[in-house]
Design a protein that fits this description.
By secondary structure, the protein is of the alpha/beta class. The chain is built from 17 helices and 13 strands.
Length: 455
């Protein structure tokens, strides 16, 4: 197996990198303080069931100056030894409670590893302590890949770091933000390892292929879960009689809104689970959800305006069967034919599919359905959440905000898509007949592709 040591100064994001690569918040301890990691910790990454590489989280190099002076003295004393052998001599002769005991833990793991990932917080200037650390690490004769962390909005600092590393003839660097994650950065990291450790090329390629497959499946699962939300809400309906009954109408609206709220919360929880963020992590990482509930209710005043939708329309309104739902019976819509004539001309298969609507038309029954604005808010909110989760590292501790969209738009033919769903209330729950229906597959594919096209 390939052994990879994650090294660097304290508090640069070493544990954060491993959490992000593992897609887990459980590894190690992350705090906004130096020296959190006190011992070497190991994690293994596999392709299917085949372990490919070990990651070693090392303590920070807190006193690199003292270490450098100590090694300098050893060099003078052991002139016949190579720099790597001098480092070996150092770790072999460090006693318990030695002032350099923590540094010895790092160097010991460096010497045992095949590749070093040197984590750099680009927000920090290139100070003398970093120059000393690089001097020491290069003595190990191990390939070093500098990892630039916290790069968002720090392009100028990143350029300066690249210039400084070039002086050490280190050019195989990588931008890998442990907070603003992208799968492409992780993929490039494995590819750089391939170029530096040729003997592990084939296994690393298996890992790249496997991780890409798993990542694509995660993203597809997330998009399908959002599509399922839109389908279930668009297909949901509450019946209402033809007579005016304000009390009954109010209750049906309440039931509909309650269904929509719960459906969105279930979708939110499922998305967190898909990307390995639990409700415990919601509180820790301050995603804008409390106990599985959005902080801003979907029917809260002003939410339509925030999403650029028509604030003059009610969040939920009735849709009349036959008028709001365009049913084709023998090539003629119910809205254009007499109900009894349509029933008389309908075949059994048509009546079996649209029986409820046909009876509703005859009896004057109407349906209470979620309107376009409600479905639009659901889609846009979950699309934003999906994108945030796809680009959120498991080391992130800051609050993740779902901002007011500026350029987001609903899918093309949105009204046609939602209209198709309303015409098929039986699609509200998954079934073999629904999932194999060509028309349903087309609607789902359109929603999924739009959710993922810019993510």
């Amino acid at each position: 197996m390939l052994n990879v040591a994650v090294v660097g100064h304290t508090n640069t994001g070493k544990t954060s990198l491993i959490r992000t690569m593992l897609r887990s918040t459980e590894f190690g301890v992350i705090e906004d303080a130096s020296g959190t990691t006190r011992h070497v910790e190991q994690a293994t990454i596999s392709a299917d069931d085949q372990p490919v590489l070990n990651l070693y989280d090392t303590p920070g190099l807190e006193d690199s100056s003292a270490l450098f002076l100590h090694i300098k003295k050893l060099n003078a004393k052991l002139k016949s030894l190579t720099p790597a052998k001098v480092l070996e001599n150092f770790v072999e002769n460090v006693s318990v409670n030695d002032p350099l005991e923590q540094e010895a833990k790092v160097i010991r793991q460096v010497l045992r590893s095949d590749v070093l990932l040197y984590i750099i917080d680009v927000r920090e200037p290139f100070l003398e302590k970093y120059r000393i650390e690089l001097d020491i690490l290069t003595k190990s004769a191990k390939p070093i890949i500098p990892i630039f962390n916290f790069i968002a909005e720090h392009n100028e600092e990143l350029a300066k770091w690249r210039e400084q590393l070039a002086a050490y003839n280190i050019h195989a660097s990588l931008e890998f933000d442990t907070v603003a994650f992208t799968f492409e950065a992780e993929k490039r990291l494995y590819q750089k390892m391939q170029t530096l450790v040729e003997s592990h090329y084939a296994n690393l390629q298996k890992l790249i292929d496997h991780r890409a497959k798993v990542w694509n499946q995660l993203c597809l699962s997330g998009a399908k879960r959002v599509a399922e939300l839109i389908v279930s809400v668009a297909c949901y309906r509450e019946s209402k009689g033809s007579k005016v009954d304000n009390m009954a109408d109010s209750l049906s609206v309440d039931r509909l809104q309650d269904f929509v709220r719960k459906a969105e919360q279930h979708c939110l929880k499922d998305l967190l689970s898909i990307f390995n963020f639990s409700e415990k992590d919601v509180e820790i990482q301050k995603i804008p959800v409390s106990d599985g509930q959005w902080q801003l209710d979907i029917f809260a005043p002003g939410i339509l305006k925030a999403y650029g939708l028509d604030i003059g329309s009610a969040a939920v309104k009735g849709a009349a069967a036959g008028a709001g739902i365009d049913l084709m019976v023998g090539g003629m819509s119910l809205g254009a034919a007499s109900a009894l004539g349509a029933v008389a001309g309908a075949g059994w298969s048509t009546f079996r599919r649209y029986g409820d609507e046909i009876k509703a038309k005859v009896q004057g029954t109407h349906w209470q359905c979620a309107d376009e604005n409600t479905l639009g808010v659901l889609y846009l909110r979950q699309k934003q959440l999906l994108e945030k989760l796809m680009h959120r590292g498991h080391a992130a501790l800051d609050a993740m905000q779902v901002e007011t969209p500026k350029t987001e738009k609903l899918p093309d033919n949105w009204t046609k898509l939602t209209g198709t769903l309303r015409q098929n209330p039986s699609w509200r729950e998954s079934s073999a007949s629904r999932n194999n229906n060509k028309q349903y597959q087309e609607v789902e594919a359109k929603l999924v592709s739009t959710l993922l096209e810019e993510s």
